[in-house]
Each structure stands twice: as structure tokens, then as C-alpha cells.
# Entry
Amino acid sequence: MMLPSIVAPAQLAANARLAATTPPGDFAEIGVFHGGSAEMLYRVARVQHRGLHLFDTFTGTPCSIDGLDKHKVDAEFAAPGAEARIRAAMPEARLYVGVYPDTHPIAMPKLAFVHCDCDQYESYIAVITRMWSLVVPGGVLLFDDYPYLAGAKRAVEEHFASADLKLCLQRYFVVKPRE
# Structure
């Protein structure tokens, strides 16, 4: 049985295909919610012998900037029981429960694919500043909420030029330059 996702099935499949093309390195997803997109990444990771690192509060939106972020600090995106379902469905994945970047481990492997689906400006900034340095040359940082949510849009545009953005079906991503 597949874990649920609010991301369209075609987009989930496109994300997984993109992840499968990346150079050696682990995968990460920040903003797991019910786990549907993480499960698609998990399947690719298992076949390709990669690690998968999953980050979420499972209690809802942890931060919000008035006038910038659409979602308020609340439980709209809480997922009671999701942690246990995710652990059962993806036993080899590393699950970090709490507010990112507080849950970012001290030692983190190099990453080939990062799926950023955390909606808010502060969360996007944390992912970009902490995860981008871990992405291997040729690796991908995929933005689920760009350009659709103002906070995500602002964070991405503060760090990446529009010419750097590529399209994966309906989601944008950047590729780490090869050295």
C-alpha cells in the first residue's frame, strides 16, 4: 500500500526519475507530511543502494512570517500517526523528527538529491543554507513550493538566479555545478 501524498502522482514519478539520474550520494526530503513522495524516493534509493534522510515535525507548520508565508503556525499540516507508518513502510530510511534545522545531524553524508517541501520562507532558507553545501556536483535541489508560495519564491530567488532553475514537470530545481 502506498503512503498518501498531496503531490500529484505524475509529479511524484517525475521527481523519482530525476532523483534516479543524480550522481552517487544520499537523498533527503524536508517536509515529509504523510510520506508519499518520500516513499517514491525510498524505492529509488533502495534500488540504487543510497541512504534516505527524512525531516518533518509531524505536528504542523513551525514558523511563519506575516505578509510573506501563506500558512500560519498551526496544525494544518500535522500528520498524527505518520511517523509510525513511515518507519514501517521505509525501515531503512533515517527519520529526523522536529523542527529543521534543529534536527540536522552533526555528521551528514553527501547528498545527490534534496526535495524541499517545507512551504515557509525560514524553512526554505534553512534548507538552502544547510543542505546545498552537502549536495555533490551534479546533484539536485528540488523546490516543491517555488514559485507558488511567496516565502519559498523569495528564498529561492535570494540564493539562485532564475537562469539556474530547471523544470521537472511542474516543479523547479537547481543542479550543483560540476567543478
Q: What stands out?
A: The mean pLDDT is 95.
